UniProtKB/TrEMBL annotation:
This is Uracil-DNA glycosylase. It comes from Laccaria bicolor (strain S238N-H82 / ATCC MYA-4686). Belongs to the uracil-DNA glycosylase (UDG) superfamily. UNG family. It is found in: Mitochondrion; Nucleus. The gene is UNG1. It catalyses: Hydrolyzes single-stranded DNA or mismatched double-stranded DNA and polynucleotides, releasing free uracil.
Length: 229
């Protein structure tokens, strides 16, 4: 885990819910394949430090097929092709920003380094079994991750944008004190639900407008860093 996150999240590791979660994960690893790999469960924390977060994009649980999940919600590494959810994310980015060209790669690391925290409500999943690690404790932990962002003490912090896609993400955000922050909610970008409100939600454009208004010119996320060079 990235050092900026360890400082604020260490108290969670000794709490009963997290100890039970660890026991569950150890048992799961003994009898099943789990995604992402152990060294990638917290990769989101190494790519986006706590003080750098401008936008949080909250998904559900990691991709559950081989070669997909690597610790950032919705992201996949080459040579894996972008899954349907990510294709819909790219589609919305293309709508929001005419200069955005759809990448062939599904690696979202470049925007993670710009302050976009790609987080799932559950950080692990059993292979080929969606939501198999839901309600095991991860939701409590990721709720604390979000609180750490929302309660940063930096006096100059003017808030962040939270994008909650799908009911699990929205239920997590409903327990938070959003206060000075911007919460954007819609259907999940999955091909099964994207037509119910994700496509056309304008979240990326709205986020940049809000960041510019609250943080000043140049505070926007340059989503075109994903463009094929």
């Amino acid at each position: 885990m990235g050092t900026s996150w360890i400082r604020v999240l260490t108290p969670e590791f000794k709490k009963p819910y997290f100890c039970k979660l660890k026991e569950f994960l150890v048992a799961e690893h003994l009898s099943h394949t789990i995604f992402p790999s152990v060294d990638n469960i917290y990769s989101w924390s190494r790519l986006t430090s706590l003080d750098q977060v401008k936008v949080v994009i909250l998904g559900q649980d990691p991709y559950h097929n081989v070669g997909q999940a690597h610790g950032l919600s919705f992201s996949v590494l080459p040579p894996t092709k972008p899954p349907g959810s990510l294709k819909n994310i790219y589609k919305q980015l293309s709508t929001d920003f005419p200069t955005f060209s759809t990448p062939k790669s599904g690696d979202l690391t470049p925007v993670a380094k710009l302050g976009v925290l790609w987080l799932n409500t559950s950080l692990t999943v059993r292979a080929h079994k969606a939501a198999s690690h839901s309600n095991k404790g991860w939701e409590v932990f990721t709720g604390q991750v979000l609180r750490a962002v929302l309660q940063r003490k930096d006096e100059e912090d003017a808030g962040v944008v939270l994008m909650a896609w799908g009911l699990p993400a929205q239920k997590t955000c409903a327990k938070l004190n959003i206060n000075k922050h911007l919460l954007l909610e819609s259907a999940h970008p999955s091909p099964l639900s994207a037509h119910r409100g994700f496509i056309g939600n304008g979240h990326f454009k709205l986020a940049n407008e809000w960041l510019r208004s609250n943080h000043g010119e140049g505070a926007e996320i340059d989503w075109t860093v994903l463009n094929e060079k």
